[in-house]
Amino acid sequence: MDQDHRFDDEDYPAYSMGRAAEMLGVTQAFLRNLGAAKLIEPQRSEGGHRRYSRYQLRLAARARELLDQGTALDAACRIIILEDQLAEAQRINTELRRDRDTS
User: Fold this and answer.
1) Angle between helices 28-36 and 17-24 in degrees, nearest 10
2) What are residue 52's DSSP bridge partners?
3) Which of 2, 25, 40, 103 is the most buried (most CB within 10 A)?
4) Which residues, other chains included, contact 26 with Cβ-Cβ below 8 Å and sequence gap of 6+?
5) Cα–Cα distance between 52 and 16 in angstroms, integer?
């Protein structure tokens, strides 16, 4: 992948665990717990270190928000997964409508 495109790729694993935790204001243990709950599965660097994408950081931030509101971790993960699926379905629906209207 061209290095310039990495800045625009929300799935590029640009952030180390320490940097991701710092940006979110959470502990590294919190990020590990999200991985154990299967909400986010970070990629690994050649040295085996966890690397997070902007997309994963958004999911982690949403999890933090729900947990701060008193939602249990498993319920928060399910809510986030459903929200993500709904957003994707809406995106596809919009594309299909646009394609239908232009043909």
Assistant:
1) 100
2) 15
3) 40
4) 60, 64
5) 6
Cα(97)–Cα(101) distance, integer angstroms: 6
Q: Which alpha helices (H) appear in the chain, and where do they start and end?
A: 3-6, 17-24, 28-36, 54-68, 73-102
pLDDT in tens, the chain (103 residues): 456 667 678 889 999 999 999 999 999 999 999 999 999 999 998 999 999 999 999 999 999 999 999 999 999 999 999 999 999 999 999 999 999 998 7
Q: For tokens 């646009």, what's the residue?
A: 98
Distance in angstroms (rounded) separating the CA atoms of residues 60 and 26: 9
Q: What are phi and psi of 8, to 5 degrees?
A: -95, -10
Q: What global pTM score does this model have?
A: 0.84
Question: Locate tokens 């999200």: which residue?
Answer: 34
CATH hierarchy code of domain 10-102: 1.10.1660.10
C-alpha radius of gyration, the chain, whole number: 16
